[in-house]
Amino acid sequence: MSDTQWLERESPQRDHLHFLQAFRSLKNPPPTRDWTTVEVRPPSYVGTWRRSLDQLEETLNMEMKKQRDAAELKRVQQYEVDSGS
C-alpha cells in the first residue's frame, strides 16, 4: 500500500491519537548524535581581528588623551593670559 493510499484510508478516522501512532514516520525517530564532545572553534582570523581592534582602541585612547591634554594646556595658558592682564 502506498503512503497516499494509507493516508486516504486513515484520514477520516476520528481518533487522532491512533492516526498519529499509526503514522510510520512518527514510530521510530531518527537516531540522535551525542554532541557533548563536539567543539566549535572560531575561524582563524578572529584572533587577528581581535588584536587589530585592541590596537586600534589603544591608539584612539592615546589620541583622545593627547587632545584632552592639549585642550587643558590651552585653558591653562588662556587663564594665565587673562589673569596676567
Give your account of this protein's structure.
The protein is mostly helical. The chain has one domain (3-29, 47-84). 69% of the residues lie in helices and 0% in strands. The longest helix is centred in the last third of the chain and has 40 residues, at 45-84. The chain is rod-shaped. The model has no long low-confidence stretch (mean pLDDT 82).
Short description:
Helices cover 69% and strands 0% of the residues. It has helices at 3-10, 16-22, 24-27, 45-84.
Order of helices and strands: HHHH
> Into which percent range does the helicity of residues fall?
55-70%
Structural class designation: mainly alpha
Q: What is the count of β-strands?
A: 0
Shape: rod-shaped
Largest sheet: none
Name the assembly state: single chain
Q: Provide the number of structural domains.
A: 1
Spans of at least 5 consecutive residues with low confidence: none
Write the layout of secondary structure elements.
Layout lengths: L2 H8 L5 H7 L1 H4 L17 H40 L1
